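Regression test case RT-17, inverse folding.

Input:
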C-alpha cells in the first residue's frame, strides 16, 4: 500500500475523485508477525458549496448510502460517486470491503 497524492484533492476526473482507506489487523506471536485480516473503505471527495463556503469532504460510500443527504449532492455528483464505487469494486474485486 502506498499513497500517490493527497487524501483530499480537487481532482474531479474519474479515477481521481476518490480513494480508499485500508484497514489492517496485525498479529504477533512469539516468533512472527503477520497480517491476519484486511479490508477497505471506499471514500469519495466532495467539493462544493455548503453554507455559502467552498468545502471539501471525504465521504465514505457506506455512509453516503445510509444517509444520502449527508452533503447536498447534485445529480451529477450522485452519478460520480456511484461510478467511483463501481470502479473501485471492479479494481479491488478480490479484497473485502469493510461492512
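Golden output:
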Amino acid at each position: 500500500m502506498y499513497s500517490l497524492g493527497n487524501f483530499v484533492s480537487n481532482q474531479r476526473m474519474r479515477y481521481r475523485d476518490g480513494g480508499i482507506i485500508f484497514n489492517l489487523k496485525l498479529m504477533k506471536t512469539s516468533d512472527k508477525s503477520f497480517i491476519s485480516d484486511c479490508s477497505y473503505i471506499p471514500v469519495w471527495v466532495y467539493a462544493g458549496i455548503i453554507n455559502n463556503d467552498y468545502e471539501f469532504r471525504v465521504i465514505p460510500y457506506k455512509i453516503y448510502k445510509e444517509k444520502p443527504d449527508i452533503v447536498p449532492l447534485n445529480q451529477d455528483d450522485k452519478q460520480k460517486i456511484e461510478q467511483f464505487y463501481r470502479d473501485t469494486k471492479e479494481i479491488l474485486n478480490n479484497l473485502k470491503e469493510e461492512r
